[in-house]
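Weekly puzzle thread! Below is a chain. First person to post its structure in token form gets bragging rights.
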Amino acid sequence: MDYKLIIKDIKAKKFENIYFLHGEEPYYIDVITNAIIEYALEEHERDFNQTILYGKDSDTLSIISEAKGYPMMAERRLVILKEAQDLKGLEDLLPYFEQPSNQTIFVINYKHKNYDSRKKSMKAASKNGIVYKSGKVPDYKLVDWIGTFIKSKGYGITPKASMLLAEFVGNDLSKISNELDKLSILVETGTTINEIHIEKNIGISKDYNVFELVNAISVRDVTKANTIVDYFNHNPKAAHIVVVVGNLFNHFSKLMKIHFLPNKNRATIASTLGIPPFIAGQLLTATETYNPKKIAANITLLHEYDLKSKGVGNSSFTSGQLMKELIYRLMH
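Winning reply:
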């Protein structure tokens, strides 16, 4: 079930007895839980009818006791079990899942991993409530996710601004949404967010970032690449070598795939690799600079420097020195 439909029902005060929210992506779990907190009870009802428990500090008997309690001067109770992944004996909640109280909304937050769908408790929770699996957004869909999210807030965003944000924050939807929420306070509704907005309000340089470094290397712009790496060396928080290596590995892996595509037009590349068309165009241009033999050598280099950045075969070089040496070898 789509989380938006769950939110829609919550706002309409159509509640389930059980919400078992699990998965690798905590963002959607928090969004659904916060919506339930907002709409399940009136503010004056919460003191006596809302209980928040934590898996590490709870036991199944006390949780069931709370869930079976009666509401006081309210239509319902709300019991939320946070960090359920830390609860010992989660399967012992099965009897409650099989016969939940009609006067209680019981919310389970099981984060950072999936709960086994074959378990009896999962099947019972699904029968008498909602089980929602919150999956990670794949890296190749992150730019689209940012665009959709910012549009829902009444803004637009340029592809480059989306890429900058995705590269800087990574695949953490909570952090991305927090940064965009900050922007929505500072930027007028209806504005199309661009790299200038990102630089001024979030602190990501529009000129000195991993995205621009990859672009410089892809066209063998030695001067620009060295300038960016020098900036990283003097501003360690701007980009860690592990992030740089990871992005370059993805870049050269894509170039290798493009070389062996039977149809090398932008539309086919974008569709096959799951990337925006303007990125597909940049990658296609880069294949003219790097042939398959050089790409294979560069991927081997990136593996070598990934190990060096983690201390394997390196006892004296700093991250900045490793980056300078790496980009020289990648382009020569």
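Puzzle host: Confirmed. Bonus trivia for everyone else. The longest helix spans residues 241-259.
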